[in-house]
């Protein structure tokens, strides 16, 4: 009997030691890790609580971006944010699973406030990658998301009214003449211009540069990357897009490889800034591929930004990069960029500042 009890005790001890080793393995190294554009502290905390509780990287990204939508981060994420030329607020969002390389995204979505959850539903319940406009809204509602909801707010409508009073300046039009101060617009070369029309055309030609059209509070994205306890990666984004954008415009927010990208074997990237310019270069795909070739995150991020700046010196934008080992860095152009990080070595979220 004593021998049997000793054997049972020994077996129990081995089992406990195994649990300790497994627990230490799950908590060793850089995992879990949450990285996000800007000092969106509460969004990072929401993602951290999710991933630290053992949920997947995709779950954490969705919870983090959803928190930013609810908080209306910087007035450019979620309902009630940046209006377009018609005064309407819309949402672009994306989620990408770095394990399967699956992507779900929505763009120019009205009447549904849960952009990131709609994007995940696209990934889960369709064989598509991107749904847009009113049909994206209809899909999200059919999948059970709440709505329809008016995404405009008193703040967004007041902002739009003030812009209208300023003759709809600045805007994203070029080489056009407005029949009235706020349109409709026609190609400049297609009209027999009167002196007054020439004056209006000159006004548009001398309107503000891209750097004044794009900034922290008029064109901003939450882009988030998470490494979960198993070392798996996911990324997500959500944004209202450019303030006073031309209706129908879709920026880089819901475009995989531009606003965000993740590959379990390599790492991940998130971006923010002038999406019309940045999406032409797929900077986040470039960052991950550069890391695949052996570049450290800092050099990969700088390289991606410098490629854009070489062609568009006045563009405004930034990226952060993390490799699969949890090493992170950022790079920017045209503004000072900040990104937020939470890891198990930290007591709370820490904000890193990157100079242009």
Task: Offer a quick outline of the entry.
With 356 residues, the chain is an alpha+beta fold.
Count the domains.
Answer: 2
Helix content: 25-40%
Alpha-carbon distance between the two ends: 74 Å
- The Cα radius of gyration reads 23 Å
Ranges with pLDDT <50 over ≥5 residues? 10-28, 201-207
| Widest beta sheet: strand line-up | 4-3-2-8-7-1-13-14
Proportion of strand residues: 15-25%
- CATH class of the largest domain, named Alpha Beta
In the CATH hierarchy, what is the architecture of the largest domain at level 2? 4-Layer Sandwich
Name a few traits of the molecule.
356 residues, Glutamine Phosphoribosylpyrophosphate, subunit 1, domain 1, 4-stranded antiparallel beta sheet, 11 helices, 14 strands, autocatalytic cleavage, beta-aspartyl-peptidase
Can you give a write-up of this model?
The structure is a single chain. The chain is α+β, with helices and mostly antiparallel strands. The chain has two domains: 29-152 and 214-354, (Glycosyl)asparaginase (Glutamine Phosphoribosylpyrophosphate, subunit 1, domain 1, 4-Layer Sandwich); 154-213, no CATH class. Helix content is 37%, strand content 22%. It has eleven helices and 14 strands. The strands form three sheets. The chain has an eight-stranded mixed β-sheet. Helix 2 (41-52) runs antiparallel to helix 3 (57-71), helix 3 (57-71) runs antiparallel to helix 4 (115-125) and helix 10 packs across helix 11.
